């Protein structure tokens, strides 16, 4: 974590002179509708262009219940209707916080503070309905609605700016034996109030050692906190309940260069969240498809000519704590662009946007990996996955359509072989595998199948041989070859039975759907059931022998299945399931004809 604290310190040192703007949350919003509640007249007036230097929105402390320093509250009128007491309590807490900055003599001499001192729960009782019916700011560009206690058409905070400046600069000089980890200067014990360099949650009996756990002096802690706040305000994006931030790092010692890089990312953040695209260099791709995350991809595009690396943080703000979930270090902008370009080639996206539909036949990594952070790590951290992990994911996709149990439903093999499940089909799996091979996600390249180029002059038996030999994934494994050919046989048999029954139903398909996972242990059971079904269909049709393709596949299967049953080695069921699914899918894709019940089928 030392590297992160150093980066935050560098960013904080650049923006230390902008501390007032960084710590005033009013500057985070582009459009603020402010309702000024005059504490003397008790009238409410709206102001659409209030100076953000006057409207100071700042927390009093780091605790969840600490409240604001001033009675300026971002709010939604509907929330007041649901819980007006909570809203009033937040105003009273802010008043208490502000008054704590003054002694009794100072309060007695200040008319505004005297009025504030006498405000209680009953003060708003006849005004709460009016407040709850105020119109909310619903502009499309970072809007906010603020309720502010005011005096003579100015927020209370406008009269006490020095209180704000003193508040944000106070940190207390803590001197303990030890040396600061950033400056190597004497004095430690200051708290940056971040989860990875803080110890707020120590039990009471251990609080006396808190300062000794924090190898930072007060100046360093202030810079780290400032750097974090710059990141959280200017460089972060929402990420499925978390926050994601892109932090540029450079080998250059030039602060101006780093500041320029930070300002570029700040503009990108504004641009990516705005519906009006203003920056020409960004708007070239602003309306393009998003493969990983819009803010991330726009940031990489904006950095394409800069000699920088990026650290990507995924974190969560929970009350006073800042909890870090994932760090991806040293990511080149060009690598982010490379990954998104390869995702375009394979027509794969990281996450599905519920409102986007699927007009362009995309498939989504979140079907394979339930954890979104795992997806980001796989795409950008150059994580190398074992082949077994990939095949387990593919098997889950085939059987259930998703690794997320909330969206899972069991496969019907007759539908699977006929391409009913587009997003869990063999073609989809090949696209995933193409992406993984290109961005080198797996420890070794995995080739499932060579490109299939059938010639018109080939008969069905030749096609079966050609496709079988082209399926690299089977290699010299007799169990996988058996599973693949059993998949072909099953698809062929289902088609034949449906043709005989005039597409009514297939008892073999129903049995197969209920036989459980395709494993080495039940390959022989599937074969025995196929033999039983063949005999019944021959009897039903009066044929001495089944259709030619079934006979050919059966003859081809027998030696491999016999060797597999005799071989006691273990073959993972996920590999077998994929081989079986490929066999059935390949048969229907390349071999099947419309009139499957005829002899030449």
Would you summarize the structure shown here?
With 601 residues, this protein is of the alpha+beta class.
Write the layout of secondary structure elements.
Layout: H1 2-15, H2 19-23, E1 31-38, E2 44-47, E3 72-74, H3 77-82, H4 84-99, H5 104-108, H6 111-117, H7 128-132, E4 143-151, E5 154-155, H8 161-169, H9 210-213, H10 218-234, E6 236-239, E7 242-249, H11 255-273, H12 280-286, H13 294-302, E8 309-318, E9 321-331, H14 333-346, E10 348-349, E11 363-364, H15 372-380, H16 387-400, H17 413-417, H18 426-438, H19 460-470, H20 478-500, H21 507-513, H22 523-541, H23 548-566, H24 573-591
Parallel strand pairs: 1-4, 10-11
Antiparallel strand pairs: 1-2, 3-4, 4-5, 6-7, 7-8, 8-9
Pfam family, one: Cas_TM1802
Organism: Campylobacter hyointestinalis subsp. hyointestinalis
InterPro entries: CRISPR-assoc_prot_Cas8b
Protein model, in words:
By secondary structure, the protein is α+β, with helices and mostly antiparallel strands. The chain folds into four domains: 2-170, no CATH class; 235-341, no CATH class; 347-438, no CATH class; 460-591, no CATH class. It has helices at 2-15, 19-23, 77-82, 84-99, 104-108, 111-117, 128-132, 161-169, 210-213, 218-234, 255-273, 280-286, 294-302, 333-346, 372-380, 387-400, 413-417, 426-438, 460-470, 478-500, 507-513, 523-541, 548-566, 573-591, and strands spanning 31-38, 44-47, 72-74, 143-151, 154-155, 236-239, 242-249, 309-318, 321-331, 348-349, 363-364. The strands form three sheets. Strands 1, 2, 3, 4 and 5 form a five-stranded mixed sheet that branches. The chain has a four-stranded antiparallel sheet with strand order 6-7-8-9. A two-stranded parallel sheet has the order 10-11. Helix 16 (387-400) packs across helix 24 (573-591). The two termini are 65 Å apart. The model is unreliable at 172-177, 195-201, 208-213, 275-286 and 596-601 (pLDDT under 50).
């Amino acid at each position: 974590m030392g590297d992160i604290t150093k980066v935050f310190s560098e960013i904080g040192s650049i923006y230390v002179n902008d501390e007032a703007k960084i710590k005033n949350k009013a500057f985070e919003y582009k459009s603020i509708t402010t309702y000024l509640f005059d504490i003397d007249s008790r009238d409410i007036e709206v102001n659409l262009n209030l100076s953000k230097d006057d409207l100071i929105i700042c927390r009093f402390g780091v605790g969840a219940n600490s409240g604001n320093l001033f009675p300026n509250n971002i709010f939604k009128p509907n929330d007041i209707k649901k819980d007006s007491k909570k809203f009033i309590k937040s105003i009273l807490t802010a008043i208490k916080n502000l008054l704590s900055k003054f002694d009794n003599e100072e309060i007695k001499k200040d008319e505004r503070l005297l009025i504030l001192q006498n405000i209680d729960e009953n003060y708003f009782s006849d005004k709460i309905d009016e407040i709850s019916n105020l119109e909310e700011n619903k502009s499309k560009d970072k809007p906010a609605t603020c309720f502010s206690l005011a005096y003579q058409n100015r927020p209370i905070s406008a009269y006490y700016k020095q209180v704000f400046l003193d508040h944000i600069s106070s940190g207390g000089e803590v001197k303990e034996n030890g040396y600061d980890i950033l400056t190597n200067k004497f004095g430690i014990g200051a708290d940056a109030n971040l989860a990875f360099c803080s110890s707020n949650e120590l039990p009471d009996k251990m609080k006396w050692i808190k300062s000794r756990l924090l190898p930072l002096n007060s100046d360093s802690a202030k810079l780290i906190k400032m750097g974090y706040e710059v990141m959280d305000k200017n460089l972060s994006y929402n990420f499925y309940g978390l926050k994601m931030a892109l932090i540029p790092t450079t080998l250059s010692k030039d602060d101006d260069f780093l500041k320029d890089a930070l300002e570029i990312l700040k503009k990108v953040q504004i641009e990516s969240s705005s519906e009006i695209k203003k920056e020409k260099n960004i708007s070239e791709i602003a309306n393009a498809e998003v493969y990983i995350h819009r803010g991330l991809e726009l940031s990489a595009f904006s950095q394409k000519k800069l000699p920088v690396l990026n650290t990507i943080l995924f974190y969560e703000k929970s009350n006073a704590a800042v909890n870090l979930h994932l760090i991806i270090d040293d990511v080149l902008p060009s690598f982010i662009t490379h990954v998104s370009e390869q995702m375009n080639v394979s027509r794969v996206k990281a996450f599905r946007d519920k409102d986007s539909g699927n007009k362009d036949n995309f498939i989504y990594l979140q079907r394979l990996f339930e954890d979104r952070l795992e997806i980001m790590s796989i795409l950008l951290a150059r994580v190398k996955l074992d082949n077994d992990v990939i095949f387990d994911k593919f098997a889950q996709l085939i059987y259930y359509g998703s690794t997320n149990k909330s969206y899972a439903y069991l496969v019907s093999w007759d539908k699977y072989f006929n391409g009913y499940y587009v997003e869990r089909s063999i073609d989809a799996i090949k696209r995933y595998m193409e992406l993984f091979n290109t961005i080198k996600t797996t420890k070794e390249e995995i080739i499932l199948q060579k490109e299939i180029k059938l010639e018109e002059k080939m008969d069905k038996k030749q096609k079966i041989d050609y496709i079988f030999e082209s399926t690299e994934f089977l290699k010299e494994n007799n169990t996988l070859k058996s599973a693949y050919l059993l998949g072909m046989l099953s698809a062929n048999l289902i088609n034949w039975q449906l043709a005989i029954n005039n597409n009514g139903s297939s008892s073999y398909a129903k049995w197969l759907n209920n036989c459980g996972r395709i494993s080495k242990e039940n390959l022989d059971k599937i074969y025995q059931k196929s033999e039983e079904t063949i005999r019944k269909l021959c009897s039903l049709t009066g044929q001495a022998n089944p259709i030619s393709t079934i006979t050919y596949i059966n003859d081809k299967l027998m030696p491999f299945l016999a060797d597999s049953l005799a071989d006691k080695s273990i073959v993972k069921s996920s590999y077998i399931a994929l081989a079986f699914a490929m066999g059935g899918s390949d048969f229907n894709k390349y071999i099947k004809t419309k009139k499957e019940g005829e002899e030449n089928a």
